[in-house]
Amino acid sequence: MYALSWLRMTSRYFQVLAPLIAICGYLWGGEIWLLAVLALLPLAGFLAAPLANARPHGLEPQQRDMLTGVLTRDGFENQVRATFAASETGQHASAILLLELNGFADIRARHGEAAADAVLKQAALRIRAALRQDDILARVGEARMGVCLAPAPSLDDEACLQLAARLQTALEEPVALPMASILPGWTIGLHRASLRTEAAEPAIDCAAQALEDALRVGPSALRLFTPALGRRATRQRQIALDAGHALDRDQIEAWFQPQISTDTGDISGFEALARWRHPRLGLVPPYDFLPLLQKSGQSERLSDRMLHLALAALRDWDAAGLHVPGIGVNFAAEDLSNPALPDKIAWTLDRFDLTPGRLSVEILESVAAGPGDSIVIETVNRLAAMGCAIDLDDFGTGHTSISAMRRLAVSRLKIDRSFVTHVDLDGEQRRMVAAILTMCERLGLETVAEGVETPGEHAMLAQLGCTHVQGFGIARPMPLEETAEWIAAHRAALTAPPAIGRSTG
Questions:
Q1: What pLDDT score was predicted for residue 59?
Q2: DSSP 8-state assignment for residue 158
């Protein structure tokens, strides 16, 4: 490969070298040598041209991306294979970097196709400017670039991370457009590959796993592949493969987290939370599988199952003499867009012989803050008219207006845990929560503080006037079979007389 590179370079300067060779021939042997050299030079150029243009074995003709001018995905993979195969020694190492533009669809929707293309073209120029001549650059996805570093003997993880950080800094410089300036964010996954032990395809896959992990962390994250990350990625892929069958196999369970009144300390309700008991991976948290179910169009089936399990639990508590005032069930925007949802809920409540007032329909603030979908508004208002409570979940993370809350007949706000954490220690947090509670009091809304973890947070929220609290500081989510024991223990602690007297000993 290196010989071929030398031949290509030589061919570019052939016109310069030819006169020099002729002069050297004349000085060495006079006119006879000069004539011989002049006769042989065209033949040498003709024979060298195919070699100079030759490609490594197995490498397809280079394919260029029409927008950026860099290699396409196929060209990238071919070049990486050739680079790995042509390494002179196993002591050399290379690195694969995958870089993804965050929010590309939003950039295109907000600024237009031309602006999105300009960001990608500028990105290709900035990456190329930071690389060496022998490094490989390609566009491997709609908003994803790939880099393969030329083999080097002293390439370690630290050097790779430093390069990735420099690339990220360069890429996130503003991109000037005719009518605006865009601040792009780039997420990067990378893998340093030993050419002695690794092949091209597994190395690219490792970089892809690192990028997936970085994308889960958030915008502008940077991740280096490690064996532990690889195990997590394998687990995530297994989850993705099995998620579509979890509902069919009755593996989705309802776990229950209590809410208590800050006035009396008694239980004011439970929230039903989805958990997946995987036969091999154990208990899978909701953030790992809920997006997969939503993406595969199974939100409605999940909501149906959670509603059934929640109301069944409420019926069982009633039968056991454990009075629980109500239960909350989360419904996604797709569920609320179904005009038949109120009738379905009414039928299910009737089936379990429960009144609508004991069901809280929890909707995300993003639903309330979004554009006014007339079907969603009508569905929520019909549920409220039936007597169901409407809880606005994760309040404070979106941009809900007071008019939106009135439009959706919200009866209770669930204050997001980001406002609750350290509310007893942080004066700014305390003022923010106090403002929310004052607004709710004026609007006649009840409040639930989510994510309460310490007695100090609990006490401060009660002092500020929050009516209900929920979080690990009260109890972690638990399966149905553990709730009866917890309810009994909690109520026993409320009614136990205080210990009065002088200790001895």
A1: 40
A2: H
